[in-house]
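Hello again, I could really use a second opinion on something today. I've dropped the whole record in just underneath, so have a look.
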Amino acid sequence: MNRITGNPIEINDLFNDRYSVQYYQREYNWGTKQIQELVYDLVNEFMNYYKDGDTQDDVENYGGYFLGPIILTDKNEIIDGQQRLSSLTLLLMYLNNLQKNINTNQINIENLIFTKKFGKKTFCIDVKERKACLEGLYENETYDIENEKNESVINLYNRYKDIEKIFPQELKSDILPLFIEWLIYKVTLIKITTTTEQDAHTVFVTMNDRGLRLTPSEMLKGYLLSEISDDETRNIANKLWQETILELKEIEKDGEADFIKHWIRSQYADSIREGKKGAEDKDYEIIGQSFHKWIRENRESIGLTNSSSFENFILKEFKLFSNIYKRLKVYSSEFNADFEYVFYNADRDFNLQYQIILASICLDDSQEIIDKKIKLISCFIDQYISRRVFNFKTVNYSSVRYTMFNITKDVRRKSLDELKDILKSKIDNMEQTLEAIDNFYLNQFTARYMLHIISRMTYYLESNSGINSSFDNYVNRSQKNSYDIEHIWSNNYNQGNHQNEFETEEEFKHFRNKFGGLLILPKDKNRSLKDMKYEDKVKKYDSENLLARTLNPNCYKNNPLFLRFINEKNFNFKYYDEFNKKELLERNNLYKDLCKEIWSIERLDEICR
């Protein structure tokens, strides 16, 4: 074998070079889960070092973070590591775009994203098929993905949009330059370089195959089974474990580890790391890193004291909680009206719901009680998320994990009545209320939630008016002609009465984004109506979803179930021949009334009846 070198390298140095990907391993295939883990791990590690008042000078003394090895040939062909390098490129691109939109010190990282020669950009990973997408994301933060066939391009676009959704709000401030400098100077990888491609593959195989290292779930299984004294019982427990782990892996990659973390955290974790510099990892973090070690070290405190308790841990507890978790994952991906709130929370990427739901379950709960607890907790989380979003408060992992951990402990193994009282109290005591809807509007933060909210309103109105409605269809972004946000006003200040009602075009554009001025329409309809006047648009709305149709007079003819429903609820629906500032504000009040009904705290009482 020829010469092989391995050296630590900072992102700032690594991304000053350009790399190619061999045709036979060209696809970028990371999913939402992997990009979430990368961003959350980096942000959480940075926040371990940051303290209020720090400046960029202080970053030099922060600790670092290791992102593993990458394997290259001496011609900079990537043999292992393109998933991380591609994902880091997307993150750097997002951070660069974010800098343009907020008033902070600008850190020059463009050279880490691309080089420019003779007017042409060459991105860090130079693959011809990806260039148009990367240029679109860099220049305009978007790319027309609708007719795209290339798997890597589709994944790159979707993961960039994931980063937009999950990047924490608290870093979109004066802290951002500190995070960027920490990322590029304190995050390192090991760069392994070989003189030939064959040697690079040999290193890759050696690093990944030799030793067949056990996973944490396999080590946990070995430990638990070793403590069961009866051979027949141990074999039964082993079979149950193996079959269940296989089912969890089929649900998603690393599904078995995700389940075990949620389960153990939900039922047993009592502490979480403080959010300050130098704080030590506690139960919550240790379970996330090595749950097999945590269970061994805490065996007595969680009741694992004899062979019988280890039997029950697998045959009763593991079995019960894994079955519930598998159900929850189905409800998250396939809309089920009986467990609708689980789907709603998953649609907004709120994965902490699994932990909190599992926390409420007792081993002796009946199936009826378990079902009600699932509905109750998921309904509470739906209300919690919505209240925060209407108040422009982020619900990403880093901003709510302390609150969600405390809620996990509060609801742990509570009876149904206790659970309802606890959750209602938490909603009542939230600083954020639905009154904020008066000032709710579409902006960069709310854009990721607005389709969900208006789809909920549309689905609620249709399903209560005798119309066969499909919420999951409204929010399905992967279908060919997906739904988009429709502005009732076209983006034309000179059109209609706008110049008389608004002193400036900027004031008009802000008002145009108010909640009451929005609908959802299929993408093709949205584009075709883009520049139309209201009096022309409203005719087209008559053939669309019910929320859009309510602007048209035909909606109030021969529609008895709709009319009965809105009269029962005293909803002030009406059609409009013209739609100016007064009408938009009136519509905004109507939307507020709808939302107060959809996210009423009385939903919790209804579940427990």
User: Anything to note?
Assistant: The chain is about 55% helix and 10% strand. The longest helix spans residues 307-333.
